[in-house]
Design goal:
The protein is an all-alpha fold. It has two domains: 2-113, no CATH class; 117-345, MetI-like (MetI-like fold, Orthogonal Bundle), CATH 1.10.3720.10. It has helices spanning 2-29, 34-48, 68-77, 90-101, 116-151, 156-169, 173-184, 208-245, 249-256, 261-273, 275-278, 292-298, 304-313, 317-345. It is globular and about 85 Å long.
Length: 352
């Protein structure tokens, strides 16, 4: 197993290079650039400040109304030109980024003017909190519910829960989040839950139990939106997996020996039925990215998802590449974790 893990880790290196190269090319070839974004800010600032000249070549200014020296300085600052002002081709800029990556240097954010690592780490707690909590709650509820539905297959409980689950599944996460915000966090209907941030302004003045309740109060709607997409899928998959396993010969043998029905499910069938469920655990490390864009945008949470949108809109290349790199490496290690969990669940599996 150790040899397999080492081989997988070594294979991650060319995989990461391929992912980052493709992402770097796509991001840099997209319309717009950080320089254009900065020039737009300068033009708007000049207009609001009293109307700096907008055109012509007067005073060494180009069509943008900004001097060529400023444009050249911006191109140099953002790495689009070298020290002599010569344009750097895209492959040269990628190799420079890759060289800096070897020192874990992602550069500075064009928008926040801070190191990329610092920007990402400052947004991580929000996404990590909701991602891990939703994953834990989803498995905690869906696995037992799927087992119970398999035990009571064909009963009224199975039919009613299936109907409720498929109704829930038919509502997209985006729509569910908007409906929850509109009806349960709006002054127009029932303002039962707050919006934005993880805690209230007076959080530090509350007692321990008050702080716990405050966090729970702020987390209910985002967590519900996080979970709505995977809740039905995981429950039905658990039920179907359990129903498939109980048809196998060794389970029939256990029944023939007079083992109680619930023990047949929980002791003899459950472990093998969990094997398909383990596949979903590959996202446990990258869960902070999954679904966070929708949830954080709807509920005004300052996390990784909102950072992704902001960075894309402002063409903050360094932050985007940092996010892609972290997400890719977490996903790859998540896949490795899945393989290890396969062996834990079923020792017959041997990857060597």
């Amino acid at each position: 197993m150790a040899t397999y893990i080492l081989r997988r880790v070594l294979l991650m290196i060319p995989t990461l290079i391929g992912i980052t190269l493709l992402s770097f090319v796509i991001i840099n070839l997209a319309p717009g650039s950080p320089v254009e974004q900065k020039l737009q800010q300068i033009r708007m600032g000049g207009a609001m400040g009293g109307g700096a000249g907008a055109g012509g070549g007067l005073g060494g200014r180009g069509e943008t109304g900004v001097s060529k020296e400023v444009i050249a300085a911006l191109n140099k600052q953002y790495g689009f030109t070298d020290e002599d002002g010569n344009p750097r081709p895209i492959h040269t800029r990628y190799f420079i980024w890759l060289k800096n990556l070897s020192r874990l240097d992602f550069g500075e954010s064009f928008k926040y003017e801070e190191p990329v690592t610092k920007v990402i780490l400052s947004k991580m707690p929000v996404s990590l909190t909701f991602g891990l909590t939703s994953l834990f709650l989803t498995y905690l509820i869906c696995v037992p519910l799927g087992v119970l539905k398999a035990i009571k297959s064909g009963s009224k409980f199975d039919l009613l829960t299936s109907f409720g689950l498929f109704v829930l599944y038919s509502v997209p996460s985006l729509i569910a989040g908007i409906l929850l915000r509109t009806f349960l966090a709006s002054e127009s209907f029932y303002p039962l839950f707050p919006l934005g941030n993880l805690v209230s302004d007076n959080y530090w003045e509350l007692s321990t139990w008050g702080q716990i309740w405050d966090r729970v109060h702020h987390s209910v709607l985002p967590l519900a939106t996080y979970m709505v997409g995977s809740f039905t899928f995981l429950t039905i998959m658990m039920q179907n997996s359990m129903l498939d396993v109980v048809k196998l010969d060794y389970v029939r043998t256990a029944r023939a020996k007079g083992v109680p029905e619930k023990l047949v499910y929980l002791k003899h069938a459950l472990r093998n039925a969990l094997i398909p469920i383990v596949t979903g655990m590959s996202g446990i490390l990258s869960v902070m990215f999954a679904g966070s864009i929708i949830v954080e945008s709807i509920f005004s949470l300052d996390g990784m998802g909102l950072l992704s949108i902001t960075s894309a809109n402002s063409r903050d290349y360094n932050v985007l590449m940092g996010l892609i790199f972290f997400q890719s490496i977490l996903f790859l290690f998540g896949r490795l974790l899945t393989d290890i969990l396969y062996v834990v669940v079923d020792p017959r599996i041997d990857f060597t």
